């Protein structure tokens, strides 16, 4: 493995290369990053596996979105390798010993930078080419559901949003296609009478339309036939457009995995890209705003072959990123991809969400860790499914606490799967309706749900200017929008991971435990306006605050040049019960 030092002091790291590992020794007492992780933000003495994995709910130590980029107090490291490897670490008073356990190639490299976490992340992201800035509309409120299966469903959802006062900016529709080709609007009579007219109508209303995708040539259910699909499969086999086994036959996803038995498109093959996207060009002509590029965690054999000479060993991690990048090249910079899996290079892609979680308090706590660890790994534009995606419906308390947090991350989205869908065993609901929209939750729990969620949605709409401003600054300065306390204010705050900065001027302190109505908030040096208390506090200090349901800790840095505008944008949260 080659060493690349971004500054002179980086050479002070002791590096020992062995046949199946690389050992590093350096000063420090913390390790952070390594991608989106749900179990913890700091991982010193806790192994990390650099591997893309699809794990449905309760991800634990697994991740859809590993990043071989990690930070310490005075050093940061970037492993330029597509291989799966494990990070083992231990620390003592003299520093950290870190072992990268894996079969690296001579072409792989280790990039080392020195400085504070803020400084080193900027150096590494600059080395990688920076981050891409999404269009301003992504910072509005997103609505998504797998249960919308027709134009009528979509229009009824938007009518309900307008009726109840929710300013939806982005609509994500998953069940739009024929579920065999994944490029044809469902052809059952009456479901989608005029998709182009529908998209144009939504665009005229300022609603951006996103369609779901998955990178498979699907193995259809037993007894089901689709002539066009059969023709596609024959063409793919004849022209070698799929990932191949060693014997030249198409690789298929193993049993026990999502889309088992399906072939997988090889996006390293230009002919595959041309054919795949020729089928989807008409969607762009309609005026779509992008795709939800789901899946990609489907290369589960080391010996499969790709057109560019790569094998499954490299593409286990690289495949979902090659898939996203193919879509980005196709749709252009004004449209977006919204993905759950990716790898090194994700910094230059568009947006990500945290995949699938159950509606449980432990999962809400996990997604905050995921967002913070992703952010300091260079994944800036991120969100999660408000209220959870799967399982029995969330309680009123869990839903509202999740809504409070979800309105104060870069991507605000609520989403759900139909109860009778592919995950029905873990998505049980007594009334068979798994709709997590605010108005549906109000049907279950009363008008207080609408009152509170409407205030947070209105707040989100009012503060879009701030999010767009801070996103632009993030892109220019290579600093994440979600910043853990240690990252923003130094390692003296390295034990605090339940509050964070959103941008440069908003400190957010959510309630993440059932039944909890108060919490301690640690304020760093500076002048902070306590939104719900209506007073300014000088830090550093720790304050105890009461936050009944409908309130979340929000403190505004009064030194922001647009402090009054930001305070006024958030003021609506303080009205009502």
Quick structural gist:
By secondary structure, the protein is an alpha/beta fold. Helices cover about 30% and strands about 25% of the residues. An eight-stranded parallel beta barrel has the order 11-12-13-14-15-16-17-18, surrounded by six helices.
Describe the secondary-structure layout.
Elements: E1 2-5, E2 14-18, E3 21-26, E4 32-35, E5 48-50, E6 66-71, E7 75-80, E8 85-92, E9 95-101, E10 109-114, H1 117-128, E11 141-145, H2 151-164, E12 168-173, H3 195-204, E13 208-213, H4 227-239, H5 270-278, H6 281-286, E14 290-293, H7 312-331, E15 336-339, E16 351-353, H8 361-375, E17 382-386, H9 396-406, E18 411-414, H10 438-445, H11 447-462, H12 464-477, E19 482-484, H13 485-489, E20 500-502, E21 506-509, E22 518-530, E23 535-546, E24 553-557, H14 563-570
Parallel strand pairs: 1-10, 11-12, 11-18, 12-13, 13-14, 14-15, 15-16, 16-17, 17-18
Antiparallel strand pairs: 2-3, 3-9, 4-6, 5-8, 6-7, 7-10, 8-9, 19-20, 20-21, 21-24, 22-23, 22-24
Helix pairs in contact: 9-11, 10-11
């Amino acid at each position: 493995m080659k060493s690349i030092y971004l500054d002179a002091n980086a050479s002070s790291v002791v590096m020992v290369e062995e046949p199946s590992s690389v050992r590093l020794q350096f000063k420090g007492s913390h390790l952070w990053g390594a991608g989106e992780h749900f179990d913890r933000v700091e991982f010193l003495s806790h192994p990390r596996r650099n591997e893309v994995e699809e794990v449905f709910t309760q991800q634990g130590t697994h991740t859809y979105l590993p990043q071989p980029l990690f930070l310490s107090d005075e050093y940061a490291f970037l492993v330029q390798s597509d291989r799966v490897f494990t990070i083992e670490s231990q620390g003592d008073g003299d520093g950290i010993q870190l072992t990268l356990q894996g079969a690296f190639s001579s072409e792989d490299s280790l990039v080392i930078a020195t400085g504070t976490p803020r400084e080193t992340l900027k150096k590494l992201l600059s080395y990688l080419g920076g981050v891409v800035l999404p269009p301003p509309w992504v910072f509005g409120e997103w609505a998504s559901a797998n249960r919308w299966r027709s134009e009528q469903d979509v229009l009824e959802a938007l009518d309900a949003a307008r009726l109840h006062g929710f300013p939806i900016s982005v609509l994500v529709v998953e069940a739009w296609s024929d579920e065999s080709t994944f490029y044809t609007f469902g052809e059952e009579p009456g479901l989608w009478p005029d998709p182009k007219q529908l998209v144009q109508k939504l665009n005229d209303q300022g609603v951006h339309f996103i369609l779901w995708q998955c990178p498979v040539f699907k193995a259809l259910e037993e007894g089901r036939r689709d002539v066009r699909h059969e023709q596609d499969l024959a063409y793919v086999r004849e022209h070698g457009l799929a990932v191949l086994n060693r014997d030249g036959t198409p690789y298929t996803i193993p049993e026990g995995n999502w889309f088992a038995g399906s072939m997988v498109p090889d996006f390293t093959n230009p002919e595959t890209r041309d054919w795949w996207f020729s089928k989807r060009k008409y969607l762009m002509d309609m005026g779509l705003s992008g795709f939800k590029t789901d899946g990609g965690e489907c290369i589960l054999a080391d010996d499969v072959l790709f057109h560019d000479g790569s094998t499954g060993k490299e593409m286990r991690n690289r495949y979902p990123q090659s898939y996203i990048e193919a879509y980005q090249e196709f749709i252009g910079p004004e449209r977006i991809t919204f993905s759950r899996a990716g790898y090194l290079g994700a910094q230059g892609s568009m947006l990500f969400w945290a995949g699938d979680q159950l509606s449980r308090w432990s999962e809400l706590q996990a997604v905050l860790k995921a967002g913070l660890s992703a952010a300091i790994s260079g994944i800036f534009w991120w969100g999660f499914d408000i209220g959870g995606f799967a399982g029995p419906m969330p309680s009123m308390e869990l839903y509202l606490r999740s809504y409070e947090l979800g309105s104060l991350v870069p991507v605000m989205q609520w989403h759900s799967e139909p109860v009778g869908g592919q995950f029905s065993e873990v998505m049980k609901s007594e009334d068979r309706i798994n709709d997590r929209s605010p108005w549906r939750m109000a049907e279950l729990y009363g008008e207080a749900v609408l009152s509170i969620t409407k205030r947070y949605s209105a707040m989100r709409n009012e503060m879009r200017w701030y999010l767009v401003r801070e996103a632009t600054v993030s892109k220019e300065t290579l600093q994440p929008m979600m910043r853990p306390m240690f990252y923003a204010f130094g390692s003296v705050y390295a034990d605090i991971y339940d509050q964070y900065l959103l941008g440069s001027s908003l400190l957010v302190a959510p309630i993440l435990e059932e039944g909890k109505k108060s919490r301690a908030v640690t304020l760093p040096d500076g002048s902070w306006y306590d939104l719900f208390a209506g007073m300014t506090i000088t830090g550093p200090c720790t304050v105890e605050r009461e936050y009944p349901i409908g309130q979340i800790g929000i403190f505004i840095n009064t030194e922001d040049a647009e402090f009054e505008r930001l305070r006024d944008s958030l003021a609506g949260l303080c009205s009502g019960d």
